[in-house]
């Protein structure tokens, strides 16, 4: 019974770590921004050069991850040097950075828990480690993919409602309500940008989960063959 519980803990930790890992490699992927900006005519909408846009993006992403201490960055817009982000945008990004740091803590905790649990199973020489792990992983993913599938359908059917609900759940203020005619942050990453981002996260997560599933199935089969 104890081994089965640890198997579920391993499965949950792997799912959590995988999901946050996918968020990291998609949300902070420069190639994704390089693809999305021309697609959404961001430079033309803001009236900014591609070079300044890239520099502002680097500052923005660096601020979220904690590499930069502030969002202060000056750019040339319509021949004038101005601050890229206003006070409301900056205040919202403080919330975004806090959320990212919390998620990073969850990812780190999941990784440490996974390592400790796996080490314990190896130390006590538990039997059927991967069979138990794989069985739990299948059940956890059955529930997970039901939820992901429902959210995917919702996002495709009405992304505005989906995205609004996301912000209402994770933020306790209305700073995220930005004006697309004034606030440059929302001009940089408009609705279509986030729609593509959410779909990319889902697709990459599904692929990564499938790879983990196949690997665990292989290890479980090897364990059975050796017993």
What is this structure's SSE topology?
Blueprint: H1 2-27, H2 30-39, H3 42-46, H4 50-65, E1 74-77, E2 80-83, H5 87-123, H6 129-157, H7 159-170, H8 184-188, H9 191-226
Antiparallel strand pairs: 1-2
Helix pairs in contact: 1-5, 1-6, 1-9, 4-5, 6-7, 6-9
Output the keywords.
78% helix; 227 residues; mainly alpha
Characterization of the model:
There is one protein chain. The protein has a two-stranded antiparallel sheet. The model has no long low-confidence stretch (mean pLDDT 93). The protein has helices spanning 2-27, 30-39, 42-46, 50-65, 87-123, 129-157, 159-170, 184-188, 191-226, and strands at residues 74-77, 80-83. The protein has nine helices and two strands, in the order H-H-H-H-E-E-H-H-H-H-H. It is mainly α and 227 residues long.
Strand order of the largest sheet: 1-2
Q: Which regions have little confidence, pLDDT < 50, spanning 5+ residues?
A: none
Measured on Cα atoms, how large is the radius of gyration? Answer: 21 Å
Give the beta-strand count: 2
Topology order in helix (H) and strand (E) letters: HHHHEEHHHHH
Ends: how far apart?
Answer: 20 Å
Name the overall outline. elongated
Number of helices: 9
Largest sheet, strands/sense/barrel: 2 strands, antiparallel
Mean pLDDT: 93
What percent strand?
under 5%
Structural class: mainly alpha
Secondary structure: helix percent = over 70%
